[in-house]
């Protein structure tokens, strides 16, 4: 759980963001304000220099080496300042201090808005990023841009799919679900056959919850400048809540926290029978659940309405240039290389899931066999999901904070008789209060 001191820091940053924005639209800064243009980027490459990159994504190591080989005058220094929230706190500290910020920062899509609204990351449109309007799949591309502003370039994506333990399903005669109603039935079948088996684990996860609401057609967040709307009473949210409440009421969800040792053990021994998660998951199966190789398969994400093909994103990161970067043109050049063309392909070859349409549609990628999944060409399923991600989704400009209080609100539904719908109402109320306290106009 996020500490009070971190929450206070987030609050200070959000307040500074609102003061900086005034009455202007979120992310609507003039593209001409950022970047000297492609020619200046080329000139910077010719001159050379050092680029400090804060990132935890391992495939960037090869990209950095390849970039330095192509541009010998450039030195890329990769720094792991912590994953996710830990890095964001360090980055926010550096921004608040006015020194120590990197030239490039890895920022997950859900967190990017918090940095963009405070104009603490560069608008990359002026550097030439608008040239990539047709390069990336819709979900990641929409997550990094607003109006004429582009605050990062997509590094990867997380279209969702259903990972299921075929060995467990076959043993107990359970049908692989194509709808969420069938998913509930499969959960009942498996748990009745063996009370130690649960359809999945869930102790309350903001990212997983919002992703499934996204797939169900819910759009609880809307932002227009400093005007913010939060509504967890929409039809899509209710569709998700009604189904997930059944799983909670019937104790069909394993009370195991994701990424814990117990979680990996459950995936290995089959007591956790499915995961609905992003397409970046296969590498984690291979490295963390090696003993279950051959047991697992991939299927399309179950649908809320039979016959639909709706998808959603779960996870994924971008690369951004902080306003305080010392070598902005060089930083953009590295971002461009790492997320497009040869750099993107090199990362895909190492197991990263592509955000680029060219890599996503390549025959080599689509026909890649996964020995872990019994030789299945799982990328075909992931690619279909990516191409069917629902449009119009957005996060809060302070989503990092909102997610930090998820378990204080929605999490109660997992450990008490509090209904999930009530938990979401409490989360909405807490998010409204926080946004209002920071100077946003929320639900007015």
Description:
The chain has a five-stranded mixed beta sheet with strand order 2-1-3-14-6, with helices on both faces. It has a three-stranded antiparallel beta sheet with strand order 12-7-13. It has two domains: 4-157 and 315-357, D-Maltodextrin-Binding Protein, domain 2 (3-Layer(aba) Sandwich), CATH 3.40.190; 160-312 and 393-442, Periplasmic binding protein-like II (D-Maltodextrin-Binding Protein, domain 2, 3-Layer(aba) Sandwich), CATH 3.40.190. The chain is of the alpha/beta class and 444 residues long. The radius of gyration is 22 Å and the shape is globular. It has helices at 4-21, 38-47, 60-70, 85-97, 109-117, 138-144, 166-171, 180-193, 206-215, 235-249, 261-269, 282-288, 328-339, 341-349, 357-360, 363-366, 379-387, 399-404, 406-409, 420-437; strands spanning 49-54, 74-79, 104-108, 145-146, 149-150, 153-154, 160-165, 200-201, 221-224, 227-230, 253-254, 274-278, 296-299, 317-320, 441-442. Helix 2 (38-47) packs across helix 13, helix 3 runs antiparallel to helix 14 and helix 13 crosses helix 14 (341-349). The model is unreliable at 1-9 and 15-34 (pLDDT under 50). Pfam families: SBP_bac_1.
């Amino acid at each position: 759980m996020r500490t009070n001191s971190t929450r206070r820091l987030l609050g200070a940053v959000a307040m500074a963001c609102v003061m900086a924005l005034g009455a202007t639209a979120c992310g609507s800064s003039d593209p001409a304000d950022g970047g000297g243009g492609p020619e200046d980027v080329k000139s910077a490459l010719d001159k050379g220099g050092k680029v400090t990159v804060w990132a935890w994504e391992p495939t960037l190591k090869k990209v950095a080496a390849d970039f330095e080989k192509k541009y010998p005058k450039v030195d890329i220094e990769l720094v792991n300042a912590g994953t996710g929230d830990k890095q964001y706190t360090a980055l926010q500290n550096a921004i608040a201090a006015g020194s120590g910020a990197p030239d490039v920062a890895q920022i997950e899509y859900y967190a990017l808005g918090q940095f963009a609204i405070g104009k603490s990351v560069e608008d990359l449109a002026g550097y030439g990023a608008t040239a990539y309007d047709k390069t990336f799949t819709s979900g990641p591309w929409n997550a990094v841009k607003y109006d004429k502003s582009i605050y990062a370039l997509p590094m990867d994506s997380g279209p969702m799919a259903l990972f299921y333990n075929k060995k467990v399903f076959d043993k107990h005669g359970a049908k692989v679900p194509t709808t969420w109603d069938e998913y509930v039935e499969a959960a009942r079948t498996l748990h009745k056959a063996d009370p130690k088996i649960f359809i999945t684990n869930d102790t309350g996860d903001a990212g997983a919850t919002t992703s499934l609401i996204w797939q169900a057609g819910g759009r609880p967040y809307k932002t227009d400048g400093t005007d913010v709307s939060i509504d967890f009473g929409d039809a899509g949210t209710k569709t998700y809540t009604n189904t997930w409440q059944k799983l909670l009421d019937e104790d069909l969800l394993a009370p195991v926290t994701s990424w814990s040792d117990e979680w990996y053990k459950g995936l290995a021994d089959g007591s956790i029978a499915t995961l609905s998660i992003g397409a970046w998951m296969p590498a984690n199966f291979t490295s963390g659940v090696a003993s279950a190789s051959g047991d697992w398969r991939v299927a399309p994400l179950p649908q809320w309405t039979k016959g639909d093909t709706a998808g959603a994103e779960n996870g994924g990161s971008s690369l951004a240039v902080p306003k305080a970067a010392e070598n902005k043109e060089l930083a953009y050049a590295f971002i461009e290389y790492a997320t497009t063309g040869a750099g993107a392909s090199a990362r895909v070859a190492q197991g990263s899931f592509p955000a680029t349409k060219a890599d996503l549609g390549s025959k080599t990628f689509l026909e890649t066999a996964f020995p872990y999944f019994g030789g299945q060409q799982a990328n075909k399923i992931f690619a279909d999901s990516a191409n069917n991600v629902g449009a119009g989704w957005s996060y809060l400009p302070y989503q990092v904070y909102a997610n930090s209080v998820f378990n204080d609100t929605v999490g109660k539904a997992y450990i008490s008789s509090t209904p999930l719908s009530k938990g979401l109402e409490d989360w909405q109320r807490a998010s409204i209060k926080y946004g209002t306290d920071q100077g946003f106009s929320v639900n007015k």
